[in-house]
Amino acid sequence: MNEFVFLYRGSGNMQSNRSPEEMEASIKRWQAWFNKLSEEGKLKDRGIPLLRESKYVAAGGTIIDGPFAEGKEVIGGISIIKAKDLAEAAEIAKSCPVFEAGGSVEVRPVTPM
Protein backbone atom coordinates (compact mmCIF):
# COMPACT_ATOMS: atom_id res chain seq x y z
CA MET A 1 0.00 0.00 0.00
CA ASN A 2 1.14 3.51 -0.83
CA GLU A 3 0.24 6.66 1.07
CA PHE A 4 -1.60 9.69 -0.30
CA VAL A 5 -2.40 13.07 1.19
CA PHE A 6 -5.93 14.34 0.76
CA LEU A 7 -5.98 18.15 0.76
CA TYR A 8 -9.52 19.32 1.46
CA ARG A 9 -10.26 22.56 -0.38
CA GLY A 10 -13.20 24.88 -0.25
CA SER A 11 -14.24 28.49 -0.28
CA GLY A 12 -13.52 30.49 2.84
CA ASN A 13 -17.20 30.77 3.75
CA MET A 14 -18.22 27.10 3.40
CA GLN A 15 -18.85 26.71 7.13
CA SER A 16 -20.22 30.18 7.91
CA ASN A 17 -23.39 29.63 5.86
CA ARG A 18 -24.47 26.57 7.85
CA SER A 19 -26.76 26.28 10.84
CA PRO A 20 -25.56 24.46 13.99
CA GLU A 21 -27.75 21.50 13.01
CA GLU A 22 -26.19 21.36 9.54
CA MET A 23 -22.72 21.54 11.08
CA GLU A 24 -23.51 18.68 13.47
CA ALA A 25 -24.88 16.55 10.61
CA SER A 26 -21.74 17.30 8.56
CA ILE A 27 -19.47 16.25 11.43
CA LYS A 28 -21.38 12.97 11.74
CA ARG A 29 -20.96 12.31 7.98
CA TRP A 30 -17.21 12.96 8.26
CA GLN A 31 -16.93 10.64 11.28
CA ALA A 32 -18.83 7.89 9.46
CA TRP A 33 -16.64 8.31 6.37
CA PHE A 34 -13.43 8.12 8.41
CA ASN A 35 -14.74 5.10 10.34
CA LYS A 36 -15.53 3.30 7.06
CA LEU A 37 -12.05 4.02 5.67
CA SER A 38 -10.49 2.84 8.92
CA GLU A 39 -12.47 -0.42 8.86
CA GLU A 40 -11.31 -0.98 5.26
CA GLY A 41 -7.66 -0.41 6.24
CA LYS A 42 -7.49 2.67 3.99
CA LEU A 43 -7.01 5.35 6.67
CA LYS A 44 -3.52 6.01 8.01
CA ASP A 45 -4.22 9.35 9.72
CA ARG A 46 -7.47 11.33 9.93
CA GLY A 47 -5.28 14.41 9.90
CA ILE A 48 -6.48 17.73 11.17
CA PRO A 49 -8.72 20.60 10.14
CA LEU A 50 -6.90 23.86 9.49
CA LEU A 51 -7.96 27.37 10.45
CA ARG A 52 -8.17 29.99 7.71
CA GLU A 53 -5.56 32.31 9.26
CA SER A 54 -2.06 31.91 7.79
CA LYS A 55 1.35 33.47 7.26
CA TYR A 56 3.34 33.10 4.06
CA VAL A 57 7.13 33.14 4.51
CA ALA A 58 9.07 33.93 1.34
CA ALA A 59 12.74 33.52 0.55
CA GLY A 60 14.71 36.22 2.33
CA GLY A 61 12.44 36.10 5.37
CA THR A 62 9.57 38.28 4.14
CA ILE A 63 6.37 37.41 6.04
CA ILE A 64 2.97 38.10 4.49
CA ASP A 65 -0.43 37.66 6.14
CA GLY A 66 -2.71 35.19 4.40
CA PRO A 67 -4.81 33.77 3.06
CA PHE A 68 -4.68 35.86 -0.06
CA ALA A 69 -7.83 37.66 -1.20
CA GLU A 70 -7.29 36.51 -4.79
CA GLY A 71 -7.29 32.87 -3.69
CA LYS A 72 -10.64 31.26 -4.45
CA GLU A 73 -10.04 28.14 -2.41
CA VAL A 74 -8.65 27.56 1.05
CA ILE A 75 -7.10 24.30 2.27
CA GLY A 76 -9.37 23.33 5.14
CA GLY A 77 -7.53 20.21 6.31
CA ILE A 78 -5.55 17.12 5.41
CA SER A 79 -5.69 13.35 5.87
CA ILE A 80 -3.37 10.51 4.93
CA ILE A 81 -4.94 7.60 3.08
CA LYS A 82 -3.54 4.21 2.07
CA ALA A 83 -4.25 2.95 -1.44
CA LYS A 84 -2.74 0.73 -4.13
CA ASP A 85 -2.09 3.65 -6.47
CA LEU A 86 -3.17 7.19 -7.34
CA ALA A 87 -6.19 5.96 -9.28
CA GLU A 88 -7.51 4.02 -6.27
CA ALA A 89 -6.84 6.99 -3.97
CA ALA A 90 -8.85 9.24 -6.31
CA GLU A 91 -11.72 6.72 -6.26
CA ILE A 92 -11.66 6.79 -2.45
CA ALA A 93 -11.78 10.60 -2.53
CA LYS A 94 -14.98 10.54 -4.59
CA SER A 95 -16.98 9.56 -1.48
CA CYS A 96 -15.62 12.42 0.67
CA PRO A 97 -18.19 14.56 2.54
CA VAL A 98 -16.42 17.78 1.49
CA PHE A 99 -18.33 17.71 -1.81
CA GLU A 100 -21.64 18.26 0.03
CA ALA A 101 -20.42 21.75 0.96
CA GLY A 102 -19.08 22.56 -2.51
CA GLY A 103 -15.48 21.67 -1.70
CA SER A 104 -12.95 19.50 -3.48
CA VAL A 105 -10.14 17.06 -2.69
CA GLU A 106 -6.63 17.23 -4.09
CA VAL A 107 -4.97 13.79 -3.95
CA ARG A 108 -1.17 13.76 -3.80
CA PRO A 109 1.19 10.78 -3.45
CA VAL A 110 3.53 10.79 -0.47
CA THR A 111 7.16 10.04 -1.31
CA PRO A 112 8.72 7.53 1.07
CA MET A 113 11.84 8.88 2.75
Care to give the gist of this entry?
Helices cover 25% and strands 35% of the residues. With 113 residues, the chain is of the alpha+beta class. Strand 3 and strand 4 form a beta hairpin.
Distinctive features:
Alpha-Beta Plaits, flat, alpha+beta, four-stranded antiparallel sheet, 113 residues, 2 helices
Protein described:
It is a single chain. With 113 residues, the protein is an alpha+beta fold. It has a single domain (2-109), classed as 2-Layer Sandwich (Alpha-Beta Plaits), CATH 3.30.70.1060. It has two helices and six strands; from the N terminus they run E-H-E-E-E-E-H-E. It has helices at 20-39, 86-93; strands at 2-10, 43-49, 54-57, 63-66, 74-83, 104-109. The chain has a four-stranded antiparallel sheet. Strand 3 (54-57) and strand 4 (63-66) form a beta hairpin. The two termini are 15 Å apart.
